[in-house]
Known about the structure:
Residues 7-429 form the Major facilitator superfamily (MFS) profile domain. Helices cover 76% and strands 4% of the residues. The chain has helices spanning 8-28, 33-40, 44-60, 62-71, 74-92, 98-127, 132-140, 142-174, 176-183, 195-200, 207-215, 228-239, 245-274, 279-303, 307-310, 313-330, 337-366, 371-400, 404-442, 474-479; strands at residues 446-451, 454-460, 465-471. Strand 1 (446-451) and strand 2 form a beta hairpin. Helix 5 runs antiparallel to helix 9, helix 8 crosses helix 14 (279-303) and helix 13 (245-274) packs antiparallel against helix 17. The longest helix is centred in the C-terminal third of the chain and has 39 residues, at 404-442.
Amino acid sequence: GPPDGGWGWMIVAGCFLVTICTRAVTRCISIFFVEFQAYFGQDYARTAWIHSIVDCATMLCAPVGSLISNHVSCQVGIMLGGLLASTGLILSSFATALEHLYLSLGVLTGFGFALCYSPAIAMVGKYFNKRKALAYGIAMSGSGIGTFILAPVVQLLIEQFSWRGALLILGGFVLNLCVCGALMRPISLKEDHKTVPEFLEQDHVSETEKQDLKHMSVCSPLIKVWSRECLCYCSWKEYDFLLMPGFMVLAVSVLFMAYGCSPLFVYLVPYALSVGVSHHQAAFLMSILGVIDIIGNITFGWLTDRRCLKKHRYFCYLFAVGMDGLCCLFLPVLQNFPLLVPFSFTFGYFDGAYVTLIPVMTADVVGTSSLSSALGVVYFLHAIPYLVSPPVAGWLVDTTGSYTASFLLCGFSMIFSSTLLCFARLAKKIKRTHLRSLTSDTGMKQHMWTNGAIAYSVTSELDRKEVEFLAVDANSCSNR
C-alpha cells in the first residue's frame, strides 16, 4: 500500500510548488491587464481573453498531461511542461500585438501548465492513503499562498522592469517546475500491476506475446507500443472508469460547480465598487479571499482525515460546495464593506475546502490506479465552464443592469451540483439496503454445492456479485 509519509512529503512539497507555478501565476496574470490595455490600446473584453485562454488551456489539456505521465513518466511530463510554460512566458515578453499574447501566454503557457498540474496532484494520491486529505490540503494551498506572495511581487516587478521584464522574470521562476518534476519519484503499487496479468489471461494473446509481455520491465511502459493489441487494451483499461455511474454523476456535478465558482473571482471587485466600496477596500476583499482560501485548504484537509469525519468526506464536500452556493445567493443583499468582509471569509474558506477534496473524491470513486487519468478528465471538465461562465455573467450584468442575476445563477448552479451528488449517494444507499434485504430473505448469502472435486462458492457482495470457483479436494469436502 501507499507509504503515507517518508518521500511522500517531498512529493507534497513538489506538488505545492507546482500549484504555485501554475495556478498562482495564472491568477497573477490579471495584474498585467492594465499594462496590456495601456500598451496595446485594446478594450477590457479583448484583453480579458488572455486570462480565459490560459485557464481554459490548462484544464482542457489536462488529459494530455495524464497520458504522458502514464505512458512515459510523471517526471518527464512535468519537466516538459515546465520548459513549455517558461518558453511561453519568455516569448510573451517580446510580444508586439495582443494576438501574440493569446498564442504565447494563452496557449503555450497554458499547455505547459496542463502537463504539470494533474500528474503532480495524482502523485500525491499514490503516496498517501490515511492522510490523503491533509496531504492534498497542503499541496493545493500553493494556489492561495502563491497568490498572496506573488501578487505584490509581480506589481513591484512591473514598476521596476516594465511588463516585459516582469514576464521575463516570471518565465525564469516557472522553470522551477523542472525541479518539481525531478522530485516526483515513481512508486509502484499492487493495483498498478493488475492490467498486464489480466491481459495475459485473454485467449487471443499468443504464447510468444505473453512471454514478451512478462519480460517487459515495469519502468518502461513505452515498450507496450510494440504490441498494438496490448496498447489498445491498456488504453481502454486506463479510461474504463468513464463508464462508472459514480464517475458520470461526479463529472456532471463538477461542470455545474465549476460554472458557479468561476465568475465570482472576476466580478467580486467590480460589484464591491458598484455598491460604493473604495478601491483599496475592494482589493482587500480579494486578499481576504486568497488568505482564507489557504486556511480552508489545510484545516478542512486535516479535519476530514480525522477518524470521525473520514467516512463522511463525501458529505463534507457536498456541504462545502452547497455553502459556497448559499454565499452567492446572499451576495446581492450585501451592499456595504462590513457585510462583504464576512462573505469573503465564508466563501474563501469553503472554496479552499472543496478544492482540497476534489482529488480525494475522485480517488474514492475510481481508485488509485486510475487516479491520474480520472483527474485529467475532471480538470478537463473545468475548462468549458471556466471559459463560458465569466462572459455569460458579464452579458447578464449588461442586460439587466445589476449583478443580481449573475450571482443567483452562480449560487443555484453550485447548489444543484451539491444536490445532484446527494441524491446519487441516497440512491446508492437505497440500492444497497434493497440488495441486503434480498440476500437475507432468500438465505442465499453463501451456498456450497459439492460435485466431485469442484465446489462453487457464491458470495454476494453489496456492490458487485462475484462468483468464485474453488477447486476443493473431494475428501476435504466429505470431511466437512
